[in-house]
Structures are given as structure tokens and as C-alpha cells.
Amino acid sequence: MNYKKKPGFATLAIHAGQEPDPLTGAVTVPIYPTSTYVQQGIGENKGYEYSRVTNPTRTRLEENLAALEGGLAARVFASGMAAIHALVSTLKSGDHVVCGNDLYGGTPRLFNQVMSDFGLEFSYIDTTRAANIEKAIRKNTRMVYVETPTNPLMRLSDLGAISAICRRKKVDLVVDNTFMSPYFQQPLALGADLVVHSTTKFLNGHSDGLGGVVVCAKQEHADKLAFLQKASGAILSPFECWLVLRGVKTLAARMEIHDRNGRVVAYFLTKHKKVKSVLYPGLPGHPEHELAKRQMSGFGSMITFETGSLKNANKMLKRVRLCSFGESLGGVETLISHPATMTHAGLGEKARREIGITDGMVRISVGIEKVDDILEDLDQALTAI
Q1: Running DSSP on this structure, what letter comes out for residue 116?
Q2: CATH number, position 367
Q3: For labelling, which of 117, 129, 170, 235 has a CA lying 20 to 30 Å from the CA of 294?
Q4: pLDDT the model gives residue 2
Q5: From 21, 37, 48, 52, the catalytic residue
Q6: pTM, two decimal places
Q7: Which among 248, 275, 301 is the end of a domain?
Q8: Using CA atoms, how far apart are residues 245 and 67, in angstroms rounded to an integer?
Q9: Could you give the CA distance from residue 202 to residue 182 in angstroms, rounded to a whole number?
């Protein structure tokens, strides 16, 4: 694309890496299901060789996602967890990682039950205060890993302040940006070195494909991750790449509706007599509300609220009709889940209690349906408590 000035986000989402196919003029990027490619001669090939290494559909997606995050390059993987695994696989035995203590449950499971066996060390702290990170960094610390907002407690970390610490300490800052998407938050612009997403969520947006991506600000990271794609093979298939390319075209439009509906639902929940508390950065009472206004261009559609008990949560979740009770988030449909028995079950009761996840908490990913219909369903389900 040749523009006199940088295109807007919606334009990039539709066109970056998604130029018409040069062979046929097809507006939609083709799916290249081929596993291998004819070569010109020994040592003469300069294009594609084998699809575990590179694939045209995957190349297009990586170009698109790098553009959306303002990165140098992107590397896509078979799932969000595969992307996180690749990230920490760039480290060596004896290296230390400082992590937020309120992460998606699968992340500490990978770190503690898999990667620690390979000699990596992990510390979990409250990253809502940047000073905590500075105190936790050791001589062998190589990476700081944060989610913001966190899953499911919706706490925020000051990426500008943390990135300044990481630069001074010569430590890489990794940000999981899944909840906000690059439409509402740009961690690389705030000083992060790497951004990770589960593309399964808002980037795909239609609950029909698994995937993960790491977007890099530095060539050395892009090269290491490309090597890991080739060496370990946890790459995203051409069809799954195509699904994300299709989904991301409407990302800007979807996120606007997600955000608008999310604000309405959050306010509704604060007024409902059966709801004890609501965790949403768009609410003035949220502890990082002012940071949210500075760091993000929207508040998104992820909300966690307290019903008071496991019994109450179960009663409510059995009653939802429009809202889909299940794992995941970020789809066009409203998805509702129970962190204590789903996303964070593996942490154990003690660990959940220590970070503030209760049995009565319910997490909702507000979809893009007519918001009145969402409110009606939530109201009738909450009356069961």
C-alpha cells in the first residue's frame, strides 16, 4: 500500500497483508494448503520451500498482525499457549521471568508444570504497581510478562512505567494484549518489546478457530521465533490463518460494538440487586480507571462480577439463554464463564483465594448482539439467585 500518511486502523485491518492476489486478482487472500513447493535448482530457490517454515497465507496474516500492532514482524502459532511457549523457549536454563500474579490459568500452568522442568524460574507479583517489578528483577531476569487488563480480575499495569524499568534493567517486556486487541491498546507504542495474543479471541472474533501470535519490535526476536516455528513446528495452518484474516477485516467495527455494549452491561450490573460487585476498567470506581483512560482508547467488553457464592453462580449460569455458558471469549456472541471451575481451576483453591478469585465470580465477554437482549437475559438469569 502506498499512502502519503499512515492509514487508519480500520484500513490497515482490511488491507495490510491482504492485497489482491497477484495471480488472479482475488480480493480475499487465497488458502494455500500445499505442504511443499517446486524448487528451481540446488541452492537456487529464494521463495517458499516447505510450509512448516513459511506459507503464503501465513505470511499474509503475519504481515497484517504486525501492521495492526505497529510491530516489525509477527509470528503465528497453533494456539495462544503455543505462542507463549515459543516466547519462553527463547530463554535458557537459569533465566528468570517476572510475571503478573493474576494471569490466565493456563499460563502459570505452562510456566510451573512444564518450563520450570527445563531450569527456568518464575516469580509472581502484583504488577499494578511498577515498583514491585523493579524490586523483583534479579541479575538473571530476562523477561517481564504481564496481562493488562488481567484475566479475570481486570486489573491494569502501567505499561509506560514498566517499560522504562525494563529498558533500564535490559529486560524484555512481554504484554498479553488479548483482552483489548490492538484496536484499543498498543503495547509496543508504550515501550513493550513483544506482544502476545490468543488469535482465537477478538482477532478471529467468530469462535471458529484456534491460534496465537507474537508481535515483535526487534528483529532478533522475530528471527528467534521464526526459527522456533521451523524447529518445533507448532505453526498455524493455512485454513486457520485464513479464518483470522477474514475475522480481522471487521475488527475495528466489532470492537466498537463490543465496547459500547460492554459499558452498558457493566453499568447495568452495578445497579442489579443480585450483583455484589463489578470489575470493569470503564467504571469510575475501578482502581485503575484513570490509567485505563490514558493507556487504552476503549474499555472493551470483558467484565467480571460477583454473585456471592458458588451456589449463586451455578443458579445463574444454568439460567442463561442468549448468553453462551462456555470457555473462551472475544466472539461475536456473548460468552459467559466461571473462572474458579474453568479458566483458573488448575490453580487450586488456595492460590485462587490468594489473588482474589472467588467461587462466586462470573466472567462475561459481551458480544455484539442488540444490547437490550443481553440485558434481558442477564436479568432473568440473575433473578434465579
Answers
A1: G
A2: 3.90.1150.10
A3: 170
A4: 60
A5: 52
A6: 0.96
A7: 248
A8: 13
A9: 10
Residue 87: exposed, middle, or buried by beta-carbon count in 10 A (0-12, 13-18, 19+)? buried
208 & 265 share domain: no
Residue ending a domain, choose from 186, 213, 248:
248
Model pLDDT for residues 285-334, shown as the tens digit of each residue: 999 999 999 999 999 999 999 999 999 999 999 999 999 999 999 999 99
- Active-site residue, from 58, 60, 142, 201: 201
What is the C-alpha separation between 357 and 341, in angstroms, rounded? 11
CB 240 within 8 A of CB 80: no
- β-pair partners for 302: 365
Same domain, 282 and 315: yes
Q: Which domain holds residue 62?
A: 9-248
- One DSSP character per residue, 19-33 reads PPPTTT--SSPPP--
Q: Judge whether 352 counts as a catalytic residue.
A: no
| Given the residues 95, 102, 158, 176, the one annotated as active site | 176
Q: What is the pLDDT of residue 3?
A: 59
Q: Looking at residue 138, which CATH number applies to its domain?
A: 3.40.640.10
Active site residue 169: no
Given the C-alpha cell 538473571, which residue does it identify? Answer: 140
- d(CA 330, CA 180) in angstroms, rounded, equals 10
Tell me, yes or no, whether 87 and 160 share the same domain. Answer: yes
What does the angle CA 48 – CA 238 – CA 332 come to, to the nearest 5 degrees? 145
Q: Does 180 share its domain with 299?
A: no
Could you tell me if residue 4 is inside a domain? no
Query: Is 52 one of the annotated active-site residues of the chain?
Result: yes
Rounded CA gap, 364 and 342, in Å? Answer: 13
Is 201 among the catalytic positions? yes
Among residues 58, 75, 104, 263, which one is catalytic? 104
- The per-residue pLDDT for range 156-180, each reduced to its tens digit, is 999 999 999 999 999 999 999 999 9
As for how many domains the chain has, the answer is: 2
Question: Could you give the angle at which helices 238-248 and 56-69 cross, rounded to 10 degrees?
Answer: 40
Dist. CA 337–CA 107, nearest whole Å:
18
